[in-house]
C-alpha cells in the first residue's frame, strides 16, 4: 500500500527511503512527516485521531501527489515528500507510522505496471511476410497436385481402383471418384509438403539470439573497470537490429559528457574568477601540472576539489561581503542532505550540479552542516550560523530555478539560483549594468563549454511575507490546479531580485566520444543530440565532440517563436541546401550523393588496397572500383561540400513537430550531417524519435542515462541505457545497457554487425535446405501418380531438420565472423550493408528458394536417371522405391552440409574455406554427417528392422551411388564456387578485401596488438580554437556568437590545405609491414585525383630518407582527424617508387 507518513523514530519526523524498484535510482531520498503529527511519536491513539483526508484520484505519476489532511479543525497540505510508496525500502529508520492512502491496484507501483510493448526487429517483420508467402506457395503446390491427381485418376487411376477397398469412400463413377480422391490428396500433400514451412525456424532464431546476447554480456572490452559495470543485453530479441541502425538519438548530459560536475569558474558582482593570468594579463592554459589553491586551512575541505585562482580564496579571507554572500547562497539554497560518517561530511544531492555547488561553498569555508524541517545550519569561516528555514520554492523543468526563504537576526531573505533567462527576467532594474558585465562572463564561460547558473537575492518585508504565506497555504491546500496556483505564488515573491553573480561548472566529455561519433558517421549512422541545455551550450558540445566542424558549409539555427517564423526558417534552410547542391553539381558536372558521403567507400577501399599483397602478375584492371555515377573524388569533396547541420530550440520544435510542418522539418533534418535539438522536454524527445520512425524506413536507436530519457528509449526501435550519475531508470527501461558512450561503437560495429551477418546467413541457408528437401517430394509426385507417397523414410523426414542439418547452421549462426573485431572497427563502412538490408531481403530470399529448388531438381533427376533400371553387382535390382529414397536422402544431407561451408566462403583461392572456424564448427559439421550414417545404418539393420531393411548397406556398396554422388556434388557446388571466386577476384567488396588482408596478416604473422579504444587527446590549441568557434552558454544577447548564427562557419586557414573527405577516413592497416620513413616539413598543398595524391606547394620541403630524390606521388591510407588547427597532423601514404610510409607534419 501507499502510506502517508505520520511519524518516525528519527527527529523531526524524517526517514530515508530507497526507490530503486520504482524509478531505478539508488540514492537515498528523504521523506518527512508533518511537524504536527511527527511530534506524536508512536502514540497510536493520537495518530489515529484525525478528521480525514482529501486526495486526488489514483494515478501513475511517481513524483506528484496532492491532498489535504484535516486535523484539529485545521487543514494541512500533503505532497509527495510525505508519502511512502509501495516498493520503497526504509533505510536508517527504526520504525515509522503511516496511514494507508492507496492500496492494491490504486498504488502507484501497480499504476505504472502498464502493458509492455514488445519490440520486434525488421527481420522478424519480414519473416512474417515470407512465412505467409511460403504458406501460399504450399497451397499452390497442393492445388497443383490435386488437379494433377484428378487428371491422372481420370485417365489412368480408375483402372486400378478395383484393387483398392475404396467402395465406401470413392464412388464407382470415374469422374466423381477422381474428384473425391483429388480432394483427399490435397490434404495428404498438405501433410507431405508441410516441411517447406519452417516450423522450427523461430526456435532456431531464438537460440542464436540467446548466444548473441551472451557474447555481448561476456565482452570484456565493454566492461568499465571504474564502475565495475559490464555491458548487458536486457533482451534477446533485438540483437541483429543493432547491425541496421541508421539514426542515433542521444542525450547529452551523462551520455556524451561524464555528468561529474566540478566548480570551475565564477563571476561575483562583475568580477571574474577562475583564470590564471600571466604578466601580460592573458589567461594561460591550466594543465594537470598546474598548482591548485591550497585549502588545507579548512579542516573539512575535500582533497579532490581543485580550483586554480588564488584571488577568490584571498577575497574570502579578506572578508569581501559580496564574495561571502555568494558562497552563503550556495551553502543555503539547495535540497542537499548531509550525513556524517566517520567524522567526515557526505552530501546526498538530487543532481550533480547541486552537489558541485554545495561542495564549492564547503571548500571556500561556507560549510553546510545539517538541516531540519525548520532550519539550516552552516559554518561560515569557522562560525556556526543557524538560519530559520521558512520556505523552499523547489526547482522544476518549467521554473528552471529554485529559491529558499530564510530568517536570520529578524531579517527575511530570499536566495535564488537558476538559468540566466529566468533570473534576468525577474531582476531589479538597478542591476542592468551588472547584468551586462555578467552576460559577458557568461559568454566566456559558455565558449569553454561550461554549464552556468545565475545567483540572486532580495530582502522581504515581514508583513509582505506573512500575506504571501497565507496565499501560498491556500494554494497548497487546493485540490484543483494546485501546481498552477502554487507557481503563481512563487512568481509573486520572486521579483525584483538583486544579481550576485554566476557560476560555471565543467561537465567533461566522456573518453572517446569524438572518435566514436566519427566512426559511427563513417558507418553511415546519423547522430541527433536531444538535450535540455541551451542552444549555445549544445552547439559548443557539438564542436567539442566533433559532431559539428569548421568544414561544414552551413549551420542552420531554427529559433522562431511562432508557426510562421519556424516555417520560414525551415524553408530558407531547405532552399539553402538545394542551392548548394545545385551549384556544386553544376560546377562539377557529376552526379554525387552529398547526403550519404559515399566518397568514404572509395577511401576505405583504397586504404585496404594499399596494404594488399600484389603478385607480379596481378592485372590492375581486375581491381573493381565504384562507378563515377555513385562516388565522387574524395579530396575535392572537402572543398566543395562539408555538409550541413541543424540546430533547433525547444520552443521552435513545438511548431516543427506540428502535422503541417513535420515533413518539412524532417526533410531538412535528414539532409544534414548533424542535428542538435536543445531545450527539449522528455516528451519532445520521444516525439522526434517517433517522427523518424514513422516516415523514414530506418532503424532508430535512443541512448540516455536519466529518467528524462526513458520516453525516447522506449519509443526507439532500440533503447540503450547508460548507467551513470542519474540513477538506473534509463537502464531499467532499455534493451541494452552500457557504462560509457564509447562502448556504443563496439556494440554496433562489432556485435551488431556480426549478429546481423550471422542471422542473414542462417536464414539464407535455412530456407535453402528446406526447399531442397521438400521439393524432392514434389518431383516424386510425377512418378507416383500424385498419390501423396513420400520419397523418404519417415525417420529421415522427422530427423532432417532436428538432427541432420540443424546443428551446422546453428554453429554458423552463433560463431561466424567475416572479419575480426579489429577490422570491424577500423573499417566502419563494413557496417553499411545492414543499413540497406542487403544481406537478407525479399530478393535474397527468392534467390535462396531458387537455389533450393534447383538443388532438389538436379539431385532428384540425376539420381533417377542413374538408378532407373539399375542392377547391383550381385544382380539385385536397385531401382526400388526404398533404395532410390535412400540415395536421394544421403546425397541431400551431404550437399546441404557442404553448402554451410559455401555460405561461409571467403578465400580467393579455395571457395570452401570457412570464415571463422571453431572446434564446435568441426564437431557439428562432421558429427552431423557421422550421426546420419550411423543412425541410418542402425535403423536399416536387422537389429531394428523395417521396410528399409538392408537398403542403406546395398546403397553404400553400389558403385552407381558413389559415382552419382560425386557427379551431383560437383554439378551443384562448382557453379556456386565459381561465381563466388569470380566475385571475390573481379568485383571484391570491402568485406572481401578486409578478409583477404586479415588472412594475409595472419599468414605473415605481422599483426600487432591493437586497442581501438586508445584515443589521442586533443591539444590545448585545438580546444581553444574550437571554443572560439562555438556558442556561449545561457547567453541571450548578441555576442561573438554571430560566428555561428551568421550561418557561415567556414574559416580559411594557412598552411596545409588537405583535400580529403569531410568526415573521417579509417585508420590504415599496414603499419608494421612497411619499411623506411619520411619526415617532411613545410608549407604546401596535398591534392588528390582518384587513387593518387600529388604533393605540390611552395616553400622548402626537406626529406630525411635513404632516397630523398623520390617524388611524393602516392595516396593516403590513414588519417585520424582533419581539423584546420595549429597542431600536428600525421598522414601515412605509399610512394609509387618505394615501399615506405611518409609522415607530413605541420607544427
From TrEMBL:
Its cofactor is Mg(2+). Residues 1081-1115 are annotated as: Disordered. Its EC number is 7.6.2.1. GO terms for molecular function: ATP binding; ATP hydrolysis activity; ATPase-coupled intramembrane lipid transporter activity; magnesium ion binding. Mg(2+) binds at residues 251, 253, 705, 709. This is Phospholipid-transporting ATPase. It is a multi-pass membrane protein. The keyword Transmembrane applies. CDD domains: P-type_ATPase_APLT_Dnf-like. The keyword Magnesium applies. The chain crosses the membrane at residues 129-155, 175-203, 762-783, 795-815, 852-871, 883-903, 923-940, 961-982. ATP binds at residues 251-253, 354, 395, 417, 451, 531-533, 679, 685, 708-709. GO terms for cellular component: plasma membrane; trans-Golgi network. It comes from Sarcoptes scabiei (Itch mite). It is found in: Membrane. GO terms for biological process: Golgi organization; phospholipid translocation. InterPro entries: ATPase_P-typ_cyto_dom_N, ATPase_P-typ_P_site, ATPase_P-typ_TM_dom_sf, ATPase_P-typ_transduc_dom_A_sf, HAD-like_sf, HAD_sf, P-type_ATPase_IV, P_typ_ATPase. Residues 1096-1113 have a biased composition (Polar residues).
Amino acid at each position: 500500500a501507499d502510506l502517508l507518513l505520520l511519524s518516525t523514530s528519527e527527529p523531526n519526523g524524517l526517514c530515508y527511503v530507497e526507490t530503486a524498484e520504482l524509478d531505478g535510482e539508488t540514492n537515498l531520498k528523504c521523506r518527512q512527516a508533518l511537524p504536527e503529527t511527527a511530534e506524536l511519536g508512536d502514540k497510536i491513539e493520537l495518530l489515529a485521531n484525525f478528521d480525514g483526508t482529501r486526495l486526488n484520484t489514483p494515478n501513475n505519476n511517481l513524483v506528484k501527489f496532492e491532498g489535504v489532511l484535516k486535523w484539529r479543525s485545521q487543514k494541512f497540505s500533503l505532497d509527495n515528500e510525505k508519502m511512502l510508496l509501495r516498493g520503497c525500502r526504509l533505510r536508517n529508520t527504526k520504525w515509522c507510522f503511516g496511514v494507508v492512502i492507496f492500496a492494491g491496484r490504486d498504488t502507484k507501483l501497480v499504476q505504472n505496471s502498464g502493458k509492455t510493448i514488445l519490440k520486434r526487429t525488421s527481420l522478424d517483420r519480414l519473416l512474417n511476410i515470407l512465412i505467409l508467402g511460403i504458406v501460399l506457395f504450399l497451397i499452390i503446390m497442393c492445388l497443383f497436385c490435386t488437379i494433377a491427381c484428378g487428371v491422372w485418376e481420370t485417365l489412368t487411376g480408375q483402372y486400378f481402383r478395383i484393387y483398392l477397398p475404396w467402395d465406401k469412400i470413392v464412388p464407382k463413377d470415374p469422374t466423381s471418384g477422381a474428384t473425391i480422391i483429388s480432394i483427399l490428396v490435397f490434404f495428404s500433400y498438405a501433410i507431405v509438403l508441410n516441411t517447406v514451412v519452417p516450423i522450427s525456424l523461430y526456435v532456431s532464431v531464438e537460440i542464436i539470439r540467446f548466444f548473441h546476447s551472451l557474447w555481448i554480456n561476456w565482452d570484456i572490452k565493454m566492461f568499465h573497470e571504474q564502475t565495475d559495470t559490464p555491458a548487458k543485453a536486457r533482451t534477446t530479441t533485438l540483437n541483429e537490429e543493432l547491425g541496421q541502425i541508421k539514426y542515433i538519438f542521444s542525450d547529452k548530459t551523462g551520455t556524451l559528457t561524464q555528468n561529474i560536475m566540478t566548480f570551475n569558474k565564477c563571476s561575483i558582482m562583475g568580477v571574474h574568477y577562475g583564470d590564471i593570468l600571466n604578466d601580460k594579463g592573458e589567461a594561460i592554459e591550466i594543465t594537470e601540472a598546474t598548482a591548485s589553491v591550497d585549502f588545507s586551512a579548512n579542516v573539512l575541505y575535500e582533497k579532490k576539489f581543485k580550483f586554480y585562482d588564488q584571488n577568490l580564496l584571498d577575497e574570502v579571507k579578506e572578508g569581501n561581503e559580496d564574495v561571502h554572500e555568494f558562497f552563503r547562497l550556495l551553502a543555503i539554497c539547495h535540497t542537499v542532505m548531509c550525513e556524517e560518517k566517520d567524522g567526515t561530511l557526505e552530501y546526498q544531492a538530487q543532481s550533480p550540479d547541486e552537489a558541485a555547488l554545495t561542495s564549492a561553498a564547503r571548500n571556500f569555508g561556507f560549510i553546510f552542516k545539517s538541516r531540519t524541517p525548520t532550519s539550516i545550519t552552516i559554518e561560515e569561516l569557522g562560525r556556526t550560523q543557524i538560519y530559520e528555514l521558512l520556505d523552499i520554492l523547489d526547482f522544476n523543468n518549467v521554473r528552471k530555478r529554485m529559491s529558499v526563504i530564510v530568517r536570520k537576526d529578524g531579517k527575511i531573505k530570499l536566495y535564488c539560483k537558476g538559468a540566466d533567462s529566468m533570473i534576468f527576467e525577474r531582476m531589479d532594474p538597478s542591476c542592468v549594468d551588472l547584468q551586462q558585465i555578467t552576460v559577458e562572463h557568461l559568454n566566456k564561460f559558455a565558449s569553454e563549454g561550461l554549464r552556468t547558473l545565475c545567483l540572486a537575492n532580495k530582502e522581504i518585508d515581514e508583513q509582505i511575507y506573512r500575506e504571501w504565506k497565507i496565499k501560498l497555504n491556500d494554494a497548497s491546500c487546493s485540490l484543483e490546479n494546485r501546481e498552477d496556483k502554487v507557481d503563481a505564488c512563487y512568481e509573486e515573491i520572486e521579483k525584483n531580485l538583486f544579481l550576485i553573480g554566476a557560476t560555471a561548472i565543467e561537465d567533461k566529455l566522456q573518453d572517446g566520444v569524438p572518435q566514436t561519433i566519427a566512426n559511427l558517421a563513417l558507418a553511415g549512422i546519423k547522430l541527433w543530440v536531444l538535450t535540455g541545455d541551451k542552444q549555445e551550450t549544445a552547439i559548443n558540445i557539438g564542436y567539442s565532440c566533433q559532431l559539428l566542424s569548421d568544414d561544414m558549409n552551413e549551420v542552420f539555427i531554427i529559433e522562431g517563436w511562432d508557426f510562421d517564423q519556424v516555417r520560414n526558417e525551415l524553408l530558407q534552410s531547405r532552399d539553402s541546401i538545394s542551392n548548394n547542391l545545385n551549384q556544386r553539381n553544376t560546377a562539377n558536372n557529376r552526379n554525387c550523393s552529398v547526403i550519404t558521403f559515399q566518397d568514404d567507400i572509395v577511401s576505405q577501399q583504397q586504404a585496404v588496397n594499399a596494404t594488399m599483397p600484389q603478385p607480379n602478375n596481378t592485372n590492375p584492371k581486375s581491381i573493381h572500383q565504384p562507378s563515377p555515377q555513385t562516388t565522387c573524388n574524395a579530396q575535392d569533396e572537402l572543398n566543395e561540400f562539408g555538409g550541413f547541420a541543424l540546430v533547433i530550440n525547444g520552443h521552435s520544435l513545438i511548431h516543427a513537430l506540428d502535422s503541417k510542418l513535420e515533413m518539412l522539418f524532417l526533410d531538412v533534418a535528414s539532409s544534414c550531417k548533424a542535428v542538435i535539438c536543445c531545450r527539449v522536454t522528455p516528451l519532445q524527445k520521444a516525439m522526434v524519435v517517433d517522427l523518424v520512425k514513422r516516415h523514414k524506413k530506418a532503424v532508430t536507436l535512443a541512448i540516455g542515462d536519466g529518467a528524462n530519457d526513458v520516453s525516447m528509449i522506449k519509443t526507439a526501435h532500440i533503447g540503450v541505457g547508460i548507467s551513470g550519475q542519474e540513477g538506473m531508470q534509463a537502464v531499467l527501461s532499455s534493451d541494452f545497457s552500457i557504462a560509457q558512450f564509447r562502448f556504443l561503437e563496439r556494440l554496433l560495429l562489432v556485435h551488431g554487425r556480426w549478429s546481423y551477418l550471422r542471422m542473414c546467413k542462417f536464414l539464407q541457408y535455412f530456407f535453402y535446405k528446406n526447399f531442397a528437401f521438400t521439393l524432392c517430394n514434389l518431383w516424386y509426385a510425377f512418378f507416383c501418380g500424385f498419390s501423396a507417397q513420400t520419397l523418404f523414410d519417415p525417420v529421415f523426414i522427422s530427423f532432417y531438420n532436428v538432427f541432420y542439418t540443424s546443428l551446422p547452421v546453428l554453429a554458423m549462426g552463433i560463431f561466424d565472423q567475416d572479419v575480426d573485431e579489429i577490422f570491424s572497427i577500423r573499417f566502419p563502412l563494413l557496417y553499411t550493408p545492414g543499413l540497406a538490408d542487403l544481406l537478407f531481403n525479399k530478393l535474397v530470399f527468392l534467390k535462396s528458394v531458387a537455389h533450393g529448388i534447383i538443388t532438389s531438381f538436379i539431385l532428384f533427376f540425376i539420381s533417377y536417371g542413374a538408378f532407373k533400371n539399375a542392377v547391383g553387382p550381385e544382380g539385385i535390382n536397385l531401382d526400388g522405391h526404398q533404395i532410390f529414397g535412400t540415395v536421394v536422402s544421403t546425397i541431400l544431407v551431404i550437399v546441404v552440409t557442404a553448402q554451410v561451408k559455401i555460405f561461409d566462403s571467403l578465400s580467393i583461392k579455395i571457395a570452401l574455406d570457412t570464415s571463422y572456424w571453431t572446434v564446435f564448427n568441426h564437431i557439428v559439421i562432421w558429427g552431423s554427417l557421422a550421426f546420419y550414417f550411423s543412425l541410418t545404418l542402425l535403423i536399416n539393420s536387422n537389429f531394428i528392422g523395417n521396410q528399409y531393411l538392408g537398403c542403406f548397406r546395398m546403397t553404400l556398396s553400389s558403385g552407381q551411388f558413389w559415382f552419382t554422388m560425386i557427379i551431383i556434388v560437383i554439378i551443384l557446388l562448382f557453379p556456386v564456387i565459381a561465381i563466388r571466386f569470380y566475385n571475390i577476384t573481379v568485383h571484391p567488396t570491402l568485406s572481401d578485401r578486409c578478409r583477404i588482408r586479415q588472412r594475409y596478416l595472419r599468414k605473415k604473422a605481422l599483426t600487432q596488438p591493437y586497442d581501438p579504444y586508445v584515443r589521442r587527446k586533443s591539444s590545448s590549441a585545438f580546444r581553444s580554437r574550437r571554443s572560439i568557434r562555438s556558442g556561449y552558454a545561457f547567453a541571450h544577447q548578441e555576442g561573438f556568437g554571430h560566428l555561428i548564427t551568421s550561418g557561415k562557419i567556414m574559416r580559411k586557414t594557412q598552411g596545409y590545405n588537405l583535400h580529403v573527405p569531410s568526415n573521417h577516413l579509417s585508420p590504415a592497416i599496414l603499419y608494421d609491414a612497411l619499411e623506411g620513413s619520411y619526415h617532411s616539413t613545410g608549407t604546401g598543398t596535398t591534392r588528390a585525383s582518384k587513387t593518387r595524391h600529388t604533393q605540390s606547394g611552395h616553400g622548402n620541403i626537406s626529406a630525411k630518407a635513404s632516397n630523398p630524390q623520390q617524388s611524393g606521388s602516392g595516396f593516403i591510407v590513414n588519417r585520424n582527424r582533419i581539423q584546420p588547427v595549429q597542431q600536428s597532423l600525421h598522414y601515412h601514404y605509399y610512394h609509387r617508387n618505394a615501399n615506405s610510409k611518409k609522415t607530413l607534419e605541420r607544427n
